Amino acid sequence: MENQRPLILVSNDDGVIAKGISELVKFLRPLAEIVVMAPDTARSGAACALTVKEPIHYQLVRKDVGLTVYRCSGTPVDCIKLAFHTVLERKPDLVVAGINHGDNSSVNVHYSGTMGAVIEGCLKGVPAIGFSLCSHEPNADFEATGPFIRQIVQRVLEKGLPPLTCLNVNFPDAKELQGIRICEQTRGEWVNEWENFAHRGDAHYYWLTGAFENKDEANEQNDHWALDHGYVAVTPVTVDATAYGLLEEMKTWF
Fold first, then answer.
1. Which conformational region is residue 44 in: left (phi greater than 0), alpha (psi within -120 to 50 degrees), or beta?
2. What is the pTM of this model?
3. Which of 11, 90, 105, 209 is most buried, judged by most C-beta within 10 A?
4. Could you give the C-alpha distances from 209 to 14, 43, 46, 144, 227, in angstroms and in order?
């Protein structure tokens, strides 16, 4: 149908009742038909995890004109897979995840359940975008992100993305944003990651914590520099994990 509106599948890792996903849906509804399939509780840090040792289920939460919302007992990746298998009447034009409560720049892309959902959409051949705000506050203010989310989504709907490529978009926690910068992924790592908070008999208990160590501070092209200077950081991400630069050299090894 020529006048058929785009269809966007939405998910997240903070859970279906998180403020971030509600705000995302609010920003996207003028642009497309929306189907939400999101975890029933928070699954932060789930990355691309699958549920394989128990069945999962979903149920309808809400159905309005142009918006259908489901909650799912699985991970963000489960949500995308199950939505494709069950509730979507046609292939979506876009998969969007977020708005995450917390920074998913740099190496966090590998740990993020938000980006896990995005990567799954990408693997299914659908353009996909993850949106994150650098604030963990449950009642964070997402309003400044709205115009940029709509602009980025409209561009991707118009232009598409190359195969096996998705977008990781991060917003600084600010009421006024300086604009969009297309960025590299910052090189860094998490250090001092575990805190020993209890010792009972032979058992030691640890809480995951840590601090991010930026190994790329002088590089103004990376996503941390953009966020530190008030810009929206847009990082194209490839899910093809082949190290092409090493292929020819390795052929001489054997």
1. beta
2. 0.93
3. 11
4. 18, 17, 16, 29, 22
